[in-house]
Design a protein that fits this description.
The structure holds 2 protein chains of 2 kinds. By secondary structure, chain A is of the alpha+beta class. In chain A, about 40% of the residues lie in helices and about 25% in strands. Chain A has 4 domains: about 5-110, Beta-Lactamase (2-Layer Sandwich); about 145-250, PAS domain (Beta-Lactamase, 2-Layer Sandwich); about 255-340, Signal transduction histidine kinase, dimerisation/phosphotransfer (DHp) domain (Helix Hairpins, Orthogonal Bundle); about 345-495, Histidine kinase-like ATPase, C-terminal domain (Heat Shock Protein 90, 2-Layer Sandwich), CATH 3.30.565. By secondary structure, chain B is of the alpha/beta class. The chains are: A alpha+beta, B alpha/beta.
Amino acid sequence: MVMQFSQIFIPNSLEYLVVNEQLTVVKKSAKIQQFTDDQENLKTGDNASLFFPELVGIDGIVQDIISGKREQFELKGVTRTLGNKKTIYFDLSFERIDPQHLLILFTDVTQEMELGQSLVQRANEVELLLSHLSKSENYIKQILTSMGDALLVTTPSGTIKTINQTTQQLFKYSEAELLEQFIGKIIQDQEFLFSLYSPNIDLSQYQQGFQNIELSCHTKNGESLIIEFSYSLIQIANSRQPVFVYLGRDITQKKAAEAEMNKALAKEKELNELKSRFISMTSHEFRNPLSSISMSVELLENFANQWTPEKRDKHLKRIKHCTEHMTNLLEDVLVIGRAEAGKLEFNPVKLDLSYFCRELVEEVQLIAGDKYHIKLQFLNELQPINLDDKLLRHILTNLLSNAIKYSPEQGEIDLKVSQEGELVQFTVQDHGIGIPVEDQERLFECFHRSKNVGEISGTGLGLSIVKRAVDLHQGEIKVSSEVGVGTCFEVLLPINNGMGNG
Amino acid sequence: MAVISKKICMVGDFGVGKTSLIRRFVERQFSDRYLSTVGVKISRKMLELQDAQQQSQEMKLMIWDIEGQTKFKAIAPSYLQGANGVLVVGDVTRQETLEHLEEQIHKFTEINPQGAVAVAFNKADLLDSEEMAYLQTHFQLSHPALVGTFSTSAKTGKNVDPIFEQLAYQIWHH
């Protein structure tokens, strides 16, 4: 049986409205006015939605409840600001009375809602603050993580307190391995560490910071790095001690590149000097024989008919000698050129060394004439050995020629050959002008000639050729000399180099 | 010409500026002070709408300022029932509030499938134009009921009237 709304007893303590499907007020409680918007005077027969904006749009819900499709509907915590600016909160509860009527109950919940508001306010403020803090922290963390420079924060005594990702990657330590450690674990520069972390140091001088200090550092696996640091002392909070903040950039490669560049510049400078010396040497070395040739040719042209055969022969021999001299000079230049270009090859062959030496000494002796005497000695029995005969010829010819050139007439030159184990040793000893100590260091440089050579002509290429030929054998050359006493060159060559064990 | 009354809801996380947007739109005022809304408060605003055919309509907008969503409290569906439109609000300085926009739109349209939706990227005055452009690209929303996405500022008033008016216009012509 459906109850009629007139039959329902509603306690006086509750405020209510009874409305029909169109929200027309059929009945109302005495004090319902307190909940209306703008506290307008609500009368029976008025449309409730004009006084209660909460009812706008809920026509469908009202119909559903009246028709029984829906049991009830509630709106909780509706806020109403009254004319005196006072805010009240109330709940609305919609219930069906009969097929035409709906009961809307109003319950004042101001006290609960005010308490709830204050709790929500506090909770939301804290949440906003936390969100803000976490965002700031995240923002800073992201920057520190993504920055390409290493960041370190230490106490005034150098204990590492904070590092970033780049620091870990650069020094190959994990965070746990670096935190709470002395910064000397990565910075090697003792002078720097001492200046900054000595007891009783005046910290105020570091407040303005230092820029671009290059410090040598090392990684966990011992690799050396050069890091360009900027650092300063920062007071983060009054209650806490200040901290050193370091920002470091790895400049190891940059430094290596700089060193390479300096080396290349030095090399270029050296090459320029070499070129100058070459021009000066060639102009001098070629000019003299060319002048002699030119002069002899001219004399022969004009006076050959009047001269005796001996005199003609003398000039022809001079031309021949000058031509040979220039040919040898050119040969030396070509050998050095090939060596510089890496085209001088090492081709060892089986060699009868005693025969080779005797032949070579004979040739040199022939050129030197009877004013010099080359004494060849084999200190022990020689086995057939593997050497590059062309390179060995360069070595011995140049050493013997020099010995002759810088010896006084009637000078004696010793060539001693010995074989010991896997090495063959050649010693060329003269009693000539000797080489000053300061020139001995640069003896094998191209075009370098000792200060005491005086008028003795030479290219400054011979010993460079010797050195390169010895190097190609993977051998060794030593010199001992005393000015005015003489010079001794010792050449040690491995005898089976490049031929395998067979 | 009869006045029509329409209900729209303001939905979004707590503290995104729903109440401030209403205050700017209805009372033309703004305050920096944060006062959290509990329950729901309804404000009214009369609008005079005009369409391209010069037809006009007076509309009384009932704007439901609904308590913001928190981790612990979801939006009560009863508030949304019977609404003709929703203004979903996010705070451009709090990314998580923008991440919730889609879910909040979905919640509204589930209850009101015919309702119109507008989205406010609020507090736009706190970001520069480059950051705003990035956000709008990053949080591109698409929904059939979406009227538009507006970068708004209750503080400066930027796009406040347009977003409510566009929503009202869409409701009128729906």
